[in-house]
Amino acid sequence: MKTIAFLLHNNFEQAEYEDVNNQLKDKGYKTLLITTNEDKEVQAMQQDVNKGDTFTADIFAKDANVSDYDALVLPGGTVNADTIRGNKEAHDIINAINDAGKPLAVICHAPWALINTGIAKGKTLTAYHTLQTDLENAGATYVDKTVQVDGNLITSRNPDDISNFVDAIDKALS
């Protein structure tokens, strides 16, 4: 059974974790939650405005072993994505997954992490529309599509695109 890890902090978009997680589990994948937070209890948000549910992470980022995961998903949420893009432990995990050529699936505001790790340069990516300039300034080509695959990178725009995002992850792991 293939294992898909989710990496997040706090104030992530609930649907981009919970709905993606549930759909991947329905397809037969094992999933686990890695956090850069100092506590295993992580707070979700709904459209960056209202607090959502809390979830319990399985492991802290500092204890994560990338060889245990077949793919990595980065949910969005502006505060979460901004925190992840500035976190060294998160960068280490993201870079290790990318360097191994494993699927790296990134949605909404989470492509900020691809900018900060240098992964975005030379790639064709999609994201929440407000990241277009950031991605282009980092040397990426921005496209406005529900899902964009460039090598091992799978990017998507927002929660409306989750079913296509999950299908792309499943196809990459098949």
TrEMBL record:
What domain of life? Bacteria
Q: Which residue ranges does UniProt annotate as crossing the membrane? A: none
Give the matching InterPro entries: C56_PfpI-like (IPR006286), Class_I_gatase-like (IPR029062), DJ-1/PfpI (IPR002818)
- Domain named DJ-1/PfpI is located at 2-169
PANTHER family to which the protein is assigned, alphabetical: DJ-1 PROTEIN, PROTEINASE
Family (UniProt): Belongs to the peptidase C56 family.
> What name does the UniProt record give this protein?
Peptidase C56
